[in-house]
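Hi! If you just cloned this repository, the fastest way to understand the data is to look at a raw example. We've pasted two of them here, unedited. The first protein comes first, obviously.
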Amino acid sequence: MTSYNEYKVKGTPDDISSFVSTSKTAGADITPVRTLDGVSYVFVRCTQALSPSTNLSLTGPELSDALVGVFYDAPDVAAAGDTAIGEPEGSSPG
């Protein structure tokens, strides 16, 4: 399983835009930026360590998840055996 560094941050639109640009260069996964009342929010995850600007601050996990969403990694079906998705445990696909 891949290990990620996660950054749930908020700041001015310009500061967030700069962080997103830097994160893209590093190959990060980035949620769409949301801006409410002049404050922008984003969730970035990357296998590399990033250095967010000191102008950015952490967003609480509940607020971040509600505003910008989460990343979902599908389970490794092959590692789960021969049970098909949606089939009762222990059954085999037909």
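Ok, and the second one:
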Amino acid sequence: MEELSLQQYYRDQIEEKRKADAYSDLLEDTVQSARYLNLRGKSRTVYLEGVYRAHKKGLCRDVPKQKFFSAILSGMEKQKNRRKP
């Protein structure tokens, strides 16, 4: 096992943090878009599949499709519950 220099280690840590931030931004933007478009049922599923497919090679490379869908749907539920007085 080769040893990484301290500089390379920090570079890798920064890159992982950047990827995690970009993924969470994608989730937030997708939730906002789906709520704004008022998508329900099959149209929401088709929209989410399109977003997942568009980002599959980049941000969603290591994320299974079902995990992506559940993260979006739970984010939509959290937003829905937050708006209730």
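That's it. A detail worth noticing about the second one: DSSP finds three helices and no strands in the chain.
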